[in-house]
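Why does residue order matter? Because the sequence determines the fold. Keep that principle in mind as you read this record.
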Amino acid sequence: MTKIKIAPSILSANFSRMGEEIAKITENGADFIHLDVMDGSFVRNISFGPKLIKESRPYSKAVFDAHLMIVNPWNYIPQFADAGADIITVHYEACGDKLKETLKMIKDLGVKCGAVINPNTEVDKIANVIEDIDMLLLMSVYPGFGGQKFIPEVLPKIEQARKLIESTGKDIDLEIDGGITKENVRAVKDAGANVIVAGSTVFNEPDRASVIKYLREI
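Structure:
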């Protein structure tokens, strides 16, 4: 059985106490720390860059999962690798025909790599790189802002992505990001996702450890 991993998104954390927030959420049971990097160009919002990641790295031994929502990500990948990211995911929509080359660049830096697709991008668009990645990330909202509602039409795509992963015979994580709640997490996991990104669902609760446990075990 594929291990379920919970990846709280720090986009919903208190940025004035980021180190403390990351330390506490790790103690509360987070497997991954999901780092939403937004540039104001690929998406209509700006979040943070490699400096925050580097300064946060000493606060946690959890996997640092850097999700790059930026144009021309190949120009910045070395900085994110140097900052301490354990896995770097890049968008098919940002890379186009340079996706395979970009993924190789990440791997050559000794970091795990992943491909991301938006809700309106078909899974078969990344079929040619599925053998190259450590994780496939499906967006269940359109990227750029936290707190959006889950798009249920993504569920069949999760099933399709899981079948594609299984066809490789490789241990590739399937991550889902966007609008995950206590109410829909079971459906998401039943469809085949095993890495669950949750921002406000975790950070807005006083007992975060219980929420993480619930998301993992339901």
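The chain has a mean pLDDT of 96.
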